[in-house]
């Protein structure tokens, strides 16, 4: 290997407030939660499922017979969480428990707020601690407490509540919002790390395949065609051509550049594969296939380990490359 | 043991639209499944296995949805498989289901594919920029538009071809009671006047964002023989894959698509697709992909796809009707879109396509692609049993 430096990594956080349309069964369940009532459904074998299931586990037929159940039940089994993570129902040590509510035949998984493992046991009676303002969301059941609990322990810290949805005119909850946040650590390969560190010095660093001699930027570490390691580094100029492009006129959620803008495949001189970047410095309708361009670097003090050091590419004013010279890169 | 014959016994799909907030995810699937099972005249006890397909989990934010959908799919106590090959998944899911019958493992298989795009935002999900990268991604349209431009440059296609396809498919969709967009009044001029979104792709040349599902029941030879009015017999299937990017990759006419088509024609004994195929349901999410895929599949030589489109050959009354159902341009529940192509091909050869039935359709192709044109799945179904 060429490098012993640690590969680069950075957080990647993606999140979205997903919508769930509930359908007739869960809509009834959620609407009842807003009234601090819990509803199950009777299956083909007579068992009452809580939360209600839309289709029978045995016959797959749609179920319709709702059954109200108690908000008090019995712990069937449990496990202890000593270090709660973000988003869990109780933000201090708690027990996950399978709880069968009185009147139900199935257990639901929920959190029980007790001091320690000494305070919970299979067979223990627990009751729902309702959210202060039920809205018709599964989080209306904030958590469970021992059935005989008094006020001495105080309210458990709970995560922020998701946004509530607008109800139908008759008061029915038809959709709920379930925010989902994924936090990753994104690591790049040793080869891409060297490319990114070169970018931080204003250099374009690719790799050549020893078999096909194609030059890849960013480098892959292995040739996707020949499957062999690529170890020969090639420094490339910051000039090249636009092979093909589109003009983005459409705004969309999460967009980081104001439309309209030109996204173009840029083929650097000496490279055998283009990458996507922006073309500015001329009117969008003046961008052409084969146009000669040069990187417009951000001010040096803003450079980091990213292709974003190149603000965009702009025309050099040289004559366009002939079509035949890049036709096989389309 | 040689490959067993397999046939489509029945198909079903949802009424597709932007937001199906009236049904849950399981309810959406069941709408398609119940229709397919009625069409196939089967009960739950007749189903031996279930094969489910959908596109990336990020689209709905549900990891491994096959687990919570098992009840709704009657899969308890049966094999349940989930398939994922990005936008081509509806096609590859159908192929996996077919293979379970062709291998002799199962007699009847239920297969279903879906997307409930309204639960999230696919454009957002397809534009996530990882750290260190340049955030230029602009959804599927932004990805494919430069390659459409390359196609136009490479073939000298007149720039109105895309609009011709859009008008044809949207008017076809008006004949399909399940289609999301049903625009019988759309005109060439109105398409040309619609906003340029991802130049060279206009608004009316793009697929909608749909909630929807499609299901089919596949069966063995005995089950196929019992279908009233005739089953759709599987004459061939083909799947091919290639990397999204490599030096010298042909982004306009991908090798994997050419290879899949060649394998399909060979498997089905087709030597001249243009004259032997009666209907094609091709995965055309942006109008220009019709001429591109006509070339990629070998219906015509490279550079001539747009001429076939321009000649009217791909219209409902043409020599090779393409997307009589309206296609992806009218209905795009991403994960289901490929299965809809396969199911619509089956409906044509079963004579069950209603107002968009192609007269005398005996052989039809269903086609799907996905990712950055890197996954291809297609099948050929016929009104007659395959020879041999």
TrEMBL record, chain A:
Top-level lineage group: Bacteria
Pfam family, one: zf-ChsH2
Residue ranges constituting the ChsH2 C-terminal OB-fold domain according to the UniProt record: 67-130, 233-298
Region (Disordered): 150-170, 308-330
Transmembrane segments: none
InterPro entries for the chain: ChsH2_C (IPR002878), ChsH2_Znr (IPR022002), NA-bd_OB-fold (IPR012340), Thioester_dehydratase-like (IPR052513)
Domain ChsH2 rubredoxin-like zinc ribbon, chain residue ranges per copy: 198-228
Record's protein name: DNA-binding protein
Source species: Haloechinothrix alba
UniProtKB/TrEMBL annotation, chain B:
Keyword Transferase: yes
The entry's keywords: Transferase
Record InterPro entries: Thiolase (IPR002155), Thiolase-like (IPR016039), Thiolase_C_2 (IPR055140)
Membrane-spanning parts: none
Occurrences of domain Thiolase C-terminal (ranges): 249-372
CDD domains: SCP-x_thiolase (cd00829)
Highest taxon in the source lineage: Bacteria
Region (Disordered) residue spans: 1-20
Statement: the UniProt record of this protein carries the keyword Mitochondrion: no
GO MF entry, a single one: acyltransferase activity, transferring groups other than amino-acyl groups
NCBIfam families attached to this UniProt entry: PRK08313.1
Protein name per Swiss-Prot or TrEMBL: Acetyl-CoA C-acetyltransferase
């Amino acid at each position: 290997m060429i490098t012993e430096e640690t590969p680069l990594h950075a957080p990647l956080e993606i999140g979205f407030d997903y919508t769930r349309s509930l359908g007739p069964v869960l809509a009834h369940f959620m609407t009842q939660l807003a009234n601090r009532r819990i509803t199950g459904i009777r299956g083909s074998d007579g068992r009452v499922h809580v939360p209600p299931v839309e289709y029978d586990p045995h016959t797959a037929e749609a179920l319709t017979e709702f059954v109200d159940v108690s908000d008090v039940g019995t712990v069937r089994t449990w496990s202890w969480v000593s270090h709660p993570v973000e988003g869990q129902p109780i933000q201090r040590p708690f027990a996950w428990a399978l709880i069968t509510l009185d009147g139900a035949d199935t257990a639901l998984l929920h959190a029980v707020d007790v001091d320690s493992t000494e305070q919970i046991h299979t067979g223990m009676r627990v009751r729902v601690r309702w959210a202060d303002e039920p809205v018709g969301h599964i989080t209306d059941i904030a958590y469970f407490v021992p059935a005989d609990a008094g006020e001495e322990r105080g309210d458990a810290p709970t995560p922020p509540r998701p946004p509530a949805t607008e109800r139908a005119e008759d008061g029915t909850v038809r959709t709920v919002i379930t925010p989902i946040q994924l936090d990753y650590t994104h690591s790049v390969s040793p080869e891409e790390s060297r490319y990114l560190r070169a970018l931080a010095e204003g250099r374009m660093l690719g790799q050549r395949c020893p078999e096909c001699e194609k030059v890849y930027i960013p480098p892959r570490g292995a040739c996707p065609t020949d499957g062999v390691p690529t170890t020969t580094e090639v420094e490339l100029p910051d000039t090249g051509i636009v092979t093909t492009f589109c003009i983005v006129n459409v705004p969309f959620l999460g967009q980081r550049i104001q439309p309209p803008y030109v996204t173009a495949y840029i083929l650097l001189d000496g490279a055998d594969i283009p990458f996507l970047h922006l073309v500015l410095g001329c009117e969008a309708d003046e961008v052409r296939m084969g146009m000669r361009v040069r990187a417009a670097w951000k001010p040096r003090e803003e450079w980091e380990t990213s292709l974003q050091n190149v603000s965009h590419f702009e025309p050099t004013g040289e004559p366009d490359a002939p079509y035949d010279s890049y036709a096989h890169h389309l | 043991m040689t490959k067993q014959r397999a046939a489509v016994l029945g198909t079903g799909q949802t009424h597709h639209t932007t937001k199906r907030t009236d049904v849950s995810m399981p309810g959406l699937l069941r709408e398609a499944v119940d229709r397919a099972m009625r069409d196939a005249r089967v009960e739950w006890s007749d189903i031996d296995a279930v094969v489910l397909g959908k596109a990336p989990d990020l689209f709905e934010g549900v990891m491994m949805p096959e687990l919570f959908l098992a009840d709704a799919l009657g899969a308890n106590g049966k094999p349940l498989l989930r398939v994922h090959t990005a936008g081509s998944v509806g096609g590859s899911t159908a192929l996996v289901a077919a293979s379970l019958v062709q291998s002799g493992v199962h007699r009847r298989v239920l297969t279903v594919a879906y997307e409930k795009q309204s639960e999230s935002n696919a454009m957002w999900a397809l534009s996530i920029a990882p750290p260190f990268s340049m955030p230029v991604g602009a959804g599927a349209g932004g990805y494919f538009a430069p390659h459409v431009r390359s196609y136009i440059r490479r073939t000298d296609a007149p720039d109105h071809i895309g609009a011709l396809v859009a008008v044809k498919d949207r008017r076809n969709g008006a004949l399909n009671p399940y289609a999301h967009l049903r625009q019988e009044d759309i005109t060439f001029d109105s398409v040309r006047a619609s906003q340029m979104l991802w130049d060279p792709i206009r608004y009316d040349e793009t697929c909608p964002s749909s909630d929807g599902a499609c299901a089919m029941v596949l069966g063995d030879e005995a089950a196929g023989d019992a279908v009233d009015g005739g089953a759709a017999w599987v004459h061939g299937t083909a799947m091919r894959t290639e990397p999204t990017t490599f030096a010298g990759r042909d982004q306009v006419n991908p090798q994997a698509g050419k290879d899949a088509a060649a394998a399909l024609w060979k498997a089905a004994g087709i030597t001249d697709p243009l004259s032997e195929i009666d209907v094609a349901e091709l995965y055309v999410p942006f109008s220009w992909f019709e001429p591109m895929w006509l070339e990629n599949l070998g219906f015509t030589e490279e550079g001539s796809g747009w001429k076939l489109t321009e000649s009217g050959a791909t219209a409902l009354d043409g020599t090779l009707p393409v997307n009589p159902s309206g296609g992806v341009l009218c209905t795009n529940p991403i994960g289901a879109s490929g299965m809809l192509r396969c199911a619509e091909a089956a409906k044509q050869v079963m004579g069950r396509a209603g107002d968009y039935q192609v007269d005398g359709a005996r052989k039809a192709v269903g086609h799907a692609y996905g990712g950055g044109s890197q996954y291809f799945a297609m099948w050929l179904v016929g009104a007659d049993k395959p020879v041999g």
